[in-house]
Every structure is written in C-alpha cells, then in structure tokens.
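Cross-posted from the bioinformatics board.
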Amino acid sequence: MRASELLGKEVRDRDGTPVGVVTDLRCVQDGPPRGHLAALRVDALLISRAHSGTLLGYDRGRSQGPALLRAIVRRLHRGARTIDWDRVSRYDGDAVELDLSLGPVSPGD
Amino acid sequence: MTAGRTLNLNLHLLDRQVVGPDDRLVCKVDDVELEPDESGRLVVTAILVGPRALGPRLGGRLGRWTAAIADRLAADRDAGPHRIDMRVVTEIGSAVRVDRTREDLAVAPLEQWVDEHVVRRIPGSRHESE
C-alpha cells in the first residue's frame, strides 16, 4: 500500500467515534537491514482533528506579533495525538480503526 | 538497548528531493510504499515517483485525471508508479541520498517530462509547504 492511502484518513476508536484524521506516520529505523540502512517501520499514527475551527486573533485590532502566532499554533495542535501502531485494529477500510476508546476530541484538549 | 532513529513520513520523507552520489537531483519523493512484515508492522519498502504516484495524492478529479494521463503515456500500463527500492538509500536527511544516479535508476524520461511540464504546473499540485 502507499503512505498516501493512510495520510488524511479518518480515524475511529473502538466505539466507532471519529477521533481525527491521520496527519503523519511515525517510523522507527529498527527493522532488519534493507540495503544500507535498517528498515523503517511504522510504529505510531499522528492524528489531529479534521477541523481546527476559527483561528484566534482575526478580530484583533492590535498589532499581531509572536504571541498571536504561538496562540494559533497551540490552537491548531489541540487534539493532536500519537497512537501506537499496536492500537490499530484495521487500516485497510474507509477509516483507520483503533482497539481503544478515546471519545471525541474535545475543545479543551 | 539503542533506540532506532525516528522520523515522520509526511514531514521528513514525502516531497523531499532524492539526490544521487554525484549530488545531482534524481527525483522527488512523490509517495512511499509500505508493506507489512511477518509481525504485521508496516515497513517502508520503496520510494514512489512520477505522476502515477503523485496523482492519487492530489485527490479528487484532478488526481484521477493526472493518473489517467500518465497511464496512457506509460510504456507499461500495468507497471504502476516508478519504484525506487529503499535498499539504495544511503541517508535520509534534508534530502534523501541514494547510491545510484538518475540514469541508473531509469527514472523514466517521459514520466519525468510529464511530471515537470504538466503535473507540476497544475495549480494546487504543489505541496502545501512549497
């Protein structure tokens, strides 16, 4: 399969609740040698909420500086999670399914 | 026990330049092939190159159109995207280094032409970070 088939795919927990989308695949270089290097093996999913919601600061009148950027970045990364590959029960369907319950990503995350 | 190096496929591998031992550009990483090993873990087995690799990533009608054109122009329609096995990779850093030149790896001239002159000129086909 291709990495692009997993990236952007919806992730659901054991209860079928959507918990985000795959934004990246973390790999560890711990496999048997494949040519010059040890093989890269996927060991975790990085998932994020599909919709970040409104960005902070658009309605601000004051000049926008680094503090605003930090706030925006923090906001965008809310709900980002790293899920061990061992918790993936299925990845070849229309969504990646996990074997644990996460509940929906809440705004307070 | 020494921990292996970690990297993120989207951040560190996709869309990176691939360079040969002569420092000349070979191609860019358009997609990555994953195969399960005996324990069910997905292993990175190859870099995929060209419009048949990039098309599906564009998604939607644009992506299907890209892949369809590439299929029509391809010498071997069943072959799939051009594949560079990970065993030729010597280093993964700001670029991906391989031990062969572009000619050695037969990155198909026609596919490369289509990629440079058609696919990459399509609005929206570039990676977000570019």
